[in-house]
Amino acid sequence: MSANKNVLLEEWRTPFGIPPFDRIQITDYLPAFDAALQRHNNEIDAIVQNPEAPTFENTVEALEFSGAQLERIGRAFYAIASAHTTDEVRAIESKVTPRLAAHSSAIFTRADLFRKIQAVHDVQPLGLNAEQRKLLQEHYSSFVRSGANLPETERKEIVWLDEELSRLEDRKSTRLNSSH
Question: Model's pTM, two decimal places?
Fold first, then answer.
């Protein structure tokens, strides 16, 4: 199946948005992850490059809604990985899992994105409802815990460590599962 006909990259017109597993080929997953990772990076870049002053809507809400395609593909893949593991699925999982960990870590250690989140957090807009304030605080805390306010060399090391930890977890899981 060609990349432009990848079912995982299409809108699913199925009941409750359930992945159309009957139409998904195992070879669809890696290209779909590649495309979704790039799309998510573009969405994050758009937030950071927005010339307007950071607001809840253009920063926190935009971040919250970013990565929807990646999340959707991940849910479909990990459902298959947990229910129907094959050597081919495990090989994809071994490639994708560390990349996803590094991707997430790279986002939550981005100083430019953190500055925008921090700007919204520091203003503590009175117009936010309790749910919005909670979401803002959760994002702010996630960035701080992830090391977004650390020097660049330490942030890069954290991204590398998160990716390496993911690889080690995958190796551990593979060994434990193969011992059955």
Answer: 0.86
